[in-house]
Fold GPI ethanolamine phosphate transferase 2.
Amino acid sequence: MKPKASWSLVALVNVLLPIGILIFAKGFFPYKPFLPGLAVRDAEDVVSAPFDKVIFMVVDALRSDFVYSESSGFKFTQSLISSGAAIPFTAYASSPTITMPRVKALTTGSIPSFLDVILNFAESDTSSTLATQDTWLAQLRATGRNLVMFGDDTWLKLFPDFFLRADGTSSFFVADFTEVDNNVTRHIDDELQQKDWDGMVLHYLGLDHIGHKSGPKSQNMIPKQAEMDGIVQRLYRAIETVPELESTLIVLAGDHGMNDAGNHGGSGVGETSPALVLLSPKFKQISKGVKCPAEFREEFDYYTKVEQSDVVPTLAGLLGTAIPKNNLGIFIKSFLGLWDEASQKRILQSNAKQLYEIANARYSDFDKRGPFTAECNTYDSEADTLACLWEKAKEGFETVGYNPEEAVKQAYKFSEKCQDYLSSTATNYDLRLMGLGTVIIFTAFITSMIYLLPMMDASRTGAFSFIFTTILYGITMFASSFVEEEHHFWYWTTSAWMVILLLKERRIGSSGIPILFLLGFLRLLRRYNQTGQKHAGAPDIVRDFLTPRPALLWILVLLTYCDLIGRLSRKIFHRLGNEVAGIMSIAIVATAIGFKVSFAKQDAPELLPAWLDKILDATKDVSLVNQARTVFIALGIATAFTIFIDRPASRKTAAYPRTAQVLHDLLTVFLATQSRFTNIPLLGLFHIMTLLLSSAKSLTTLDVSFTILLLQRASFFAFAGTNAISSVDLSSAYNGVSGYNVLVVGLLTFVSNWIGPIFWASAGFLLLAKRAEREALASVGFAPGQKKTDKEMAEIDGVVERTKGEAFLRNTLVFTAFEAGSVVAVMLACTVLRQHLFIWTVFSPKFLYCMAWALGMQLGVTVLGGLVWRWGSR
């Protein structure tokens, strides 16, 4: 007897998905252990400090070329670099390159946990506080010094009750380029006159927001750089002229960089190469200056390259504090010249001893290893190599008359190797939790398949293709290159499936022309937005064809919107008459067009043709927030009217589900509102593809489900999605939002990045309902126009509803089985390859994307959305 699926079973299996994922995540992303308490300097390590105050100025996403290149707006800073008053570096920021983990690295000197990627987006989270950890801020407070902070409120979350005065701003409101920085700058003049602070933190966000909205080549970028340079000039002039500030060190640092799309989070050279400049007139005694601006560096490795964590021990030496206990940084050699040889030796001794404490805690019996007679680089064991280097460094510290230069050299050898080994030390994974999570998801996968297979008899071709694709996709998850270039898998798989459908069409005597057009459109999708890692900068349609032709781009955008007007006017507000329906449809879509044009004026005015100025004139007095809210309110009213008022009281068997179609069209307007305007034409193309699929004659309901699954994945990449955190698009996350709200912004961020999959999920429900209705009518021999008695029609309606119900149930199981199978594959890959070089740069981000697909698309769209559309199609 075949097992029979039910909605209760589907609900149970889908409940297992978040449970298994969260359990695995807890084992895979634990916090790294840290040494508790504050470090205290030994008397023998104390040296005089050249500075007693510090201004720590972070410019979010300050990529190295933004400061050092010829096109930079940091002209004053460049003049200081040339004179020797400022010493420049490129500070390597390891992945994940987002604010919270990078601030942790800049303050503790340690390597943050990858879990901070998630915590970074939860502004209300307090579990990631550094209140109990050793940082250079804690060290300043321990020596009786006061701190003030203005800017990104991430600092307030990490350092609660640390600051004498503070004014935080949300780091996620990316629509704001100006006020978010003015709110920082307005405090500077008053604070420079105050004498009660010893450390000032300034964290500017505007440059990062410009990058997210329109990329590093935005016309707003150079003016923003010049604005930040003006702040540096104001601070530097103050320490030159105000006696109380003459021993103040200025640190200008980027927490991370950005890629060519203006995003960050991954391990691309642009993302991992922020600028770092230390400024003071005192540096002229140790530096003659270097040429600045510098020639362009494709790898963004300007001047000396240091680890971002190296800032921490360097600040400790320059400010005269102990080095934080969990620091993995090394004192930067460029500043040793501020001290005599004896003091240099003590500074490096202090750094080496602090790193030794971490090594001693990390490796068992570290102190008992040896004796060491050979060269240290001959040992296979990390612990033996470090222990050998420590013995040589300790000899240099403790031996009277030991050559100071040799002592410094040995200290750096140990410290550098210690940094190398300890920075790459794997997370303490909880394999039990990882295994339990994997077993739970595997159970969901097997259960789904057991109940799905008996429902796949109607299309053996579709069944085989689905199973083969699921298995093959799971295998690719074990190769980093396949994960990075996943779009190729979906483009080729979707094209191959279309060829199979073409053969099916020809087998039943159909011309197959709709499928041929679909193959052509798939080729267009592949080139619309170049994505992935290896060919991210290769030519594509948006960058190389539409962007140089803004008039053509906007014609395509407006055609998409006009098509939506036509579709809505024929179906929406049915009870109010055709004339009112047409007017209301125009009004709804017109608000969306007005918002998008106004948004483009701020986002990329160079891509706005002059003939759209009339639209701008009509909306110039309305803020973007209010314009977006108008769009959302209009869509909300139309949706409510369609569901509760305009929905027909009864349906005719062969009628197309008009209510569901109207909801789909309204959803498309919403998706267009959340899309980058360069991608809006894709929604028009998707509609054409939907019509072509609808006209294909050989598709079964199973074929429809599998086709939609493929198109969802392919469209995700067509909209420029990748498996890298840096491709998360925040440009539309604040449409209609005047402040940070984690739920609203989270929802808008998800929608903005899953535009294509959400569209195809909705279109798939419509195609599924229509195809199921055809199959049901064919099974009872009913033809359109055929006369039947009321009793016969009622029986036929019952068959149609049962067929639809089974089709929607099978569709949900198809997506559930694939999602569970793909998550299991990624979990196994992360477990097996947990020591892999790319575990945190490739496989971990892929797991986060799996979470989004499973929790957002599967539960939020496929399951809940499917229930809504099922009800709407009745």
Observations:
- The longest strand covers residues 53-59.
